[in-house]
Amino acid sequence: MDGTFFALTFPGIYFQMRRPIVEPEGEPLELGEIHLRIADKLGLIPPIPQSLYKAAEEPSAFGKALMAYAMTEPAAMKSMPFIIGKTLAR
Hints:
By secondary structure, this protein is of the alpha+beta class.
C-alpha cells in the first residue's frame, strides 16, 4: 500500500491510500529502514560502539550513553537519526 497526506488543505487534512500495482517480491521494507541501509552502505554512519547498542536495551540509560558517545565522536551529530535507527530502533 502507498499513502499520501494532503496538508495544503489545512485545517481539513486528507490522506489517500492506493492499492499496490504489482505484488512485492520478498518482505518489503519500511522507508526509514531503506534510508538507514543506504546511509550505512555509503559510509555516512560513524562506527557505533558496542556499549551504545547495549544501552539501547535499557531506554532509561540510552539518552545518557548517546550523549556521551556524541561528545567523543563529533561526526556523530550529523548522523544522529541514523545512529538512533541502528541502536534504539533495533
